[in-house]
């Protein structure tokens, strides 16, 4: 509308100028003709002033609307690209409010699984289970976000969200597994609440379902185009006691990643987790499983040194290969109960429909080598075991994946003619 008003104004001005020039070049006009031309010129000027007034009104209205939509620099806003500088003379940047669709990220998954347990002296057992998770994260600004996760399962079990299909079709329990706020300050991320584990991990030390609480800070820096390094720190209140000492964990981890050419990548991390376990009022049988426990306390301290090294060969194909090793030692346990290690070989990927991934792992973990409350729950033995595991994953379209897992395991000190136990799992995973 503004453009057309300008065009009309310029055209009218040109027309007025053309009329005056024509009158100058033409032969002398009669008095009647001259009066008629003057009247036409006055009419055109009046119409031009009217259009100028309308143009000024429209411009004022646009400025008012922009003023209402503007936000001060200090208020939350959607970021512009880092390579676009703000105008140096502008005290206030005019930006559109972020759309809710772009600021909110919702995801989740549903797993249906059938499991068969057999071997050893115990009676075989089959069962079906369900796991459901729903996550949401909202970006308040380019630097601040909040999030939460709802899960099925027993809220008193920190390392499992599966529900066994049983109990005469009773309804499932659903609980708030994560709720957090995070801030991104350059290379540093700070998060508080109950959130995803920040450390590099394997199931031997940290189960994938554990969501610690407290506060964490992470720092990451790119070394060059092919590498990165950084560190994580975690303050983890485990159990609070009104009348005595609390239970908590202070942990840290440094990590590095380096690529060599296009096909080889090396990952390494070293962590130290210092547990102080004084208050245990909230601990149940699942929390104290596996470790030596008596007289209302753990018989070992837990000061874990956790090292992980992974080497990946990824040629230009669908079959990258990763060899990963994890070694842990508990400096607070007796020498014959303090060590665990795991080795895993993985081939393939799950990046696109049709992809296949196969894996084999071997692990040996002494009884107090890890803190069992937060270690794996893949089998019925959380510590003090020897284990082989096989995995096969197949990716289908539309967020569907199939998994086949087999575990063969026994206690380290098992005796008898048939000490090995077996667990076979078949699962369908739906993700969105």
Which terms summarize this structure?
disordered N terminus, 432 residues, Porin, two-stranded antiparallel sheet, 3 helices, 2 domains, 45% strand, alpha+beta, single chain
Question: Can you characterise this structure?
Answer:
This protein is of the alpha+beta class and 432 residues long. The protein folds into two domains: 1-21 and 42-65, no CATH class; 106-431, Porin (Beta Barrel). The chain contains three helices and 19 strands. The longest helix has 39 residues, at 31-69.
Number of discrete domains = 2
In the CATH scheme, the class of the largest domain would be Mainly Beta
Structural class call reads alpha+beta
Low-confidence blocks of residues:
1-29, 65-98
Describe, in short, the structure shown.
The chain has three helices and 19 strands. The chain has about 425 residues and is of the alpha+beta class. It folds into two domains: about 1-20 and about 40-65, no CATH class; about 105-430, Porin (Beta Barrel).
